[in-house]
Amino acid sequence: MRALNQRLVLDRLREHGEATRPEIAGHTGLSKPTVGQALLDLEQHGLVQAIGRRLDRPGRAAVVYRTAPDAGHIVGVDVGRRVVHVAVANLDGVVVARVEQPNRSRSGAMLVRIVGESVARAVAEAGLTGDDIVVTVVGTPGIPDTDTGTVHRSPNLPGWERRGLLGELMALLGANGSTVLVENDANLCAVGEHARGAAQGVDVVACLTVGTGIGMGILVGGNLFRGARGAAGEIADLPYGRVPAGVTSHRPGPVEVVAAGDAVVSAARSAGLSLSTAKAVFEAARAGDERAVRVVADEASKLARVVSVVTAVLDPGLIVLAGGIGRNVDLLADPMRRELAETIPLVPDIVGGELGDDAVLVGAIATAMDTAWDLVFERRVLGR
Fold first, then answer.
1. What is the CATH number of the domain that holds 92?
2. DSSP letters for 43-59
3. Structure-derived torsion over alpha carbons of residues 191, 66, 48, 223, reported in degrees to the nearest 10
4. 61 & 82 share domain
5. Partners of 208 in the beta sheet?
6. Could you give the residue ranges of the DSSP H alpha helices within 17-107?
7. How far is the C-alpha of 208 from the C-alpha of 221, rounded, in Å?
8. Which of 27, 73, 136, 353 is the most exposed place for a label (fewest CB within 10 A)?
9. Domain span at 235
10. Cα distance between residue 233 and residue 209, in whole Å
């Protein structure tokens, strides 16, 4: 019962922030003496701290408590095709060190090494050691299968699908006892936008990430929906009715082939533009180049068709566009809405992500925080 009371008090402080003993008692239903004992115990375990006093009633100042953010540290990793991003944070989610490492890997083993070195450098820059890290959360394209130690459906990362490679990465990052979790990057993007970005407070969210590849993270009731085998949101292989220029097969091309970054560049070149990146195509459209404007309009139409399917299945309250292409919401959202209004009865709100390149990292840190507090409580209070 004593440990249960401590957990109730800790959860109250985590959810609502700093509070006095009477405030905690009012929110938890525990008596003031019980709350006082729980706070004393949690202080001794290094999980909460007194941060000052404030007037509780006239003439009486009450001690204000909050969680102890340095009770442990966590790491978030975003494994991208071009860059590996790493952030180290305390248990409040405040980032204390960041590392960005170009991803020039030509094999899965090389990428494992890059990730490991990047994490080690970030931890050192934070003035910590591997022993200080409670949880590490890695975001990766594809479907992580921790049972076999393999990432499935991640063709944009050379060698990343090799059987057992994920297990090697987890063993490397967990060598000092850190719990290692691996999650799809679009899922973490959705978590990040729900925690700190455009999707805060929305119950059903689909976060559509469009860049080098295409993916989708789904939140229902604020929780990730992964499906039976972790593949929910893998929309890259949805059939698509149009064959892109230069493709001779008469089979419908999957969504990623017709709407991801390479497809935008190919469409621009077919229109007579000598541009090498999707970013440049969108910049040309903003500058008024009619050829680029047509390419962007076509991209918006493709994405609208994807959203129409997603809406029919999920009925999301919000579509968040993210990724290198998706972030161009100023050019994409209005034409998408117009096309959707002509094809489906209920058009969801469409907004751009607010976290930019940090969305996956923010989601990784948010995920790590929840797990880390559970682990720290178990270790310090329950002795497990």
1. 3.30.420.40
2. HHTTSEEEEEEEEEETT
3. -20
4. no
5. 216, 321
6. 21-28, 32-44
7. 18
8. 27
9. 201-353
10. 10
What digits encode the pLDDT tens for the residues 314-324?
Answer: 999 999 999 99
Helix ranges restricted to H, 214-327:
255-259, 261-270, 278-286, 290-314, 323-326
Exposure class string for 315-332: b at 16+ Cβ within 10 A, else e: ebebbbbbbbbbbbbebb
Q: What pTM did the predictor assign?
A: 0.91
Query: How far is 295 from 331, CA to CA, in rounded Å?
Result: 11
Beta bridge partner(s), residue 145 = 150
Report yes or no: 99 and 112 within 8 Å, Cβ to Cβ: no
Q: Say if residue 120 is in the same domain as residue 239.
A: no
Residue with tokens 């990047």, as numbered in its chain = 118
The verdict on 57 and 17 lying in the same domain is yes
Residues 113 and 214 reside in one and the same domain: no
Confidence at 247, pLDDT banded by 50, 70, 90: very low
Widest distance between CA atoms in the chain: 83
pLDDT of 212-227, one tens digit each?
899 999 999 999 999 9
Asked if residue 283 belongs to a domain, the reply is: yes
Look up residue 23 and give its two tokens.
Answer: 């405030």
Report how far residue 191's alpha carbon sits from residue 268's, in angstroms, rounded to the nearest whole number.
33
Task: State which amino acid sits at residue 316.
Answer: P
Residues 6 or more apart in contact with residue 37 via CB below 8 angstroms: 2, 5
- In the sheet with 60-67, reading across from the earlier edge strand, the strands are 19-20, 60-67, 48-57
Q: Answer yes or no: is 194 within a domain.
A: no
- Per the structure, the count of domains in the chain is 3
Q: What are phi and psi of 99, to 5 degrees?
A: -140, 135
Question: Is 369 part of any domain?
Answer: yes
- pLDDT digits over 122-168, tens only? 999 999 999 999 999 999 999 999 999 999 988 889 999 999 999 99
Residues 116 and 175 in one domain: yes
Residue 27 burial (CB < 10 Å; 0-12/13-18/19+)? middle
